[in-house]
Amino acid sequence: MATNPARAQSDHPGRWRQVARPRRPAHLALLALIFTGLAVYAWLAAAAAPFSRGALMGVVIPGAVLGLIAFGRPPERIPPPAEMDMIGMSYWVICLAAFFEWEASAWRDNSWPWHPSFTNLLDPLLGPHLIKTLAILVWMLAGWALVRR
Amino acid sequence: MPPIPTRAITIAGFAVAVAAMIVLEILARRPGSRIPTVGQWFGYLMRPKIGRALVLVGWWWLGWHYFAR
């Protein structure tokens, strides 16, 4: 008996998302081109010195582009769930509250290096150019994922 | 108190919180899970326009905070 795939998917919101759309070669080539462009952009943005105009523009441009897309020409969006399981969501709230409480206490103490904030810990890791490039690329892709939501 | 143990405890606290979130995401992706995935609860928050704007501003702030400063 045939089943409605959309209904089957909505009945199991926890499943991995199935990618059913066929990918044509031209579409894949365009995706590869966009990804390469983003990688080059991330490489250039990562080379800018901190607190410089270049570094600021490196994040302003993706923000402006995604803002325009999100509110001007939004892409096909992934439908959000109609309602949220509050018990399931509470696990996330507990984790996020613990994380931000830990961060807030580090920020309030201002006692680097004894109680470093998350930023204090992450900044040295972002020092190598390649790592910073990858981080900027992930940040831009995360922005696109948010626009699609 | 020597500084190293305090620093190690702080780092462990962050590691536990981040690891817990990764575990939650894995659990959320199991069939029939009641726990929403990150994408699902972001999608839920972004249903109203103001939620969408605030989440995108938060995303942009993260980029500015880590990559421009």
DSSP summary: helix tally of chain A: 6
Q: Please count the beta strands of chain A (DSSP E, at least 2 residues each).
A: 0
Alpha-carbon distance between the two ends of chain A: 32 Å
How many distinct beta strands of chain B?
A: 0
Order of helices and strands of chain B: HHH
Helical/strand content category of chain B = mainly alpha
Biggest interface between chains: A-B, 57 and 44 residues
The average pLDDT value of chain A, as a whole number, equals: 85
Based on secondary structure, the structural category of chain A is mainly alpha
The percentage of residues in β strands of chain B lies in under 5%
Question: Summed up, what is this model?
Answer:
Chain A has helices at 5-11, 25-47, 53-71, 86-109, 118-125, 129-147. Chain A has 149 residues and is mainly alpha-helical. Chain B is mostly helical and 69 residues long.
Can you describe what's shown?
The complex is a heterodimer of chains A (149) and B (69). Chain A is flat, with a radius of gyration of 20 Å. Chain A contains six helices and no strands. Chain A is mainly α and 149 residues long. Chain A has helices spanning 5-11, 25-47, 53-71, 86-109, 118-125, 129-147. By secondary structure, chain B is mainly alpha-helical. Chain B contains three helices and no strands. Chain B has helices spanning 3-28, 38-45, 49-68. At the A-B interface, α3, α4, α5 and α6 of A face α1, α2 and α3 of B.
Can you give keywords for this protein?
heterodimer; A: 149 residues; mainly alpha; 6 helices; B: 69 residues; 0% strand
List the helices and strands and how they pair.
The complex is a heterodimer of chains A (149) and B (69).
Chain A: H1 5-11, H2 25-47, H3 53-71, H4 86-109, H5 118-125, H6 129-147
Chain B: H1 3-28, H2 38-45, H3 49-68
